[in-house]
């Protein structure tokens, strides 16, 4: 069964990030259809996902549309219990569902003052009292969830679950705006920034359209605090070591250089998302390391 998922700009659409993580992080097949926010593209795309009014919106293979990320999480969990979208333990699952529901409905001050922007990180943004109250609430419910679930790893309720999916854009906001949180909360943020699916989404977000000026803020910039990507660059000329794109298997047309070597891809987007973070893509990493050892 393959689903369709309508999303907005990857760099900015926090709810789209949640919707996509529910597929990518749990290994579920999906065809993504993207529209640029604040343009006519979005209503045109959503016309194919009626009656949804916002992204993300999911369409099943039978054509049933499920809007809202929380509903998407529940529907996917019902259809794919083996995926582990919610914790298996009933009490842990109850905690995870409560966390996701609170995130879905709350933290308005944080959302408003710090809209998600995965293309930049700032030294700080002078968070007002309401944002600081949201951060204090996050620290409390994250700590209580970990205690309630006796969690020893990086996630809230044992293994990575929908509860963590719902807080991924919050982690991006804390990282992006240099918000001060406790060491425990900061460790949770760092786990999100290093998560393979999050890295793939951010890499795509870096190259899937022009900047949206609405999200620009006048704060001093700093390097993104997540894992540093391997240096790579797009090049116009060269002979690729591979004949087929590592993602599609199609003939290569667009090139990148990394570690003094040339690799090819079937289109500029495949190349550019790889340039943005080469190690985020297992198919490319396997190609890179295989060639190193051959």
Percentage of residues assigned to helices: 40-55%
Termini Cα gap: 37 Å
- Biggest β-sheet: count, sense, barrel? 4 strands, mixed
How many distinct beta strands? 9
The secondary-structure element order is EHEHEEHHHEHHHHEEEEHH
Overall number of structural domains: 3
Overall structural class, as computed from helix and strand content, comes to alpha+beta
Which shape, going by the Cα principal axes?
globular
Percent range for β-strand residues: 5-15%
How is the CATH topology of the largest domain named? Glutathione S-transferase Yfyf (Class Pi), Chain A, domain 2
CATH architecture heading of the largest domain: Up-down Bundle
Number of helical segments with 4 or more residues:
11
Major sheet strand order = 2-1-3-4
Mean pLDDT: 96
Q: Compute the gyration radius: what is it?
A: 20 Å
Low-confidence stretches: none
- CATH level 1 name of the largest domain: Mainly Alpha
EC number: 2.5.1.18
InterPro entries: Glutathione-S-Trfase_C_sf, Glutathione_S-Trfase_N, GST_Omega/HSP26, Thioredoxin-like_sf
Keywords: Transferase
Protein name: Glutathione S-transferase family protein
Strands, helices and their partners?
Elements: E1 3-7, H1 14-24, E2 30-34, H2 41-46, E3 57-59, E4 65-67, H3 69-79, H4 90-105, H5 108-113, E5 121-122, H6 129-148, H7 162-176, H8 183-194, H9 196-205, E6 221-222, E7 232-235, E8 254-258, E9 261-265, H10 268-276, H11 282-293
Pfam families: GST_C_2 (PF13410), GST_N_2 (PF13409)
GO molecular function: glutathione transferase activity
Protein name: Glutathione S-transferase family protein
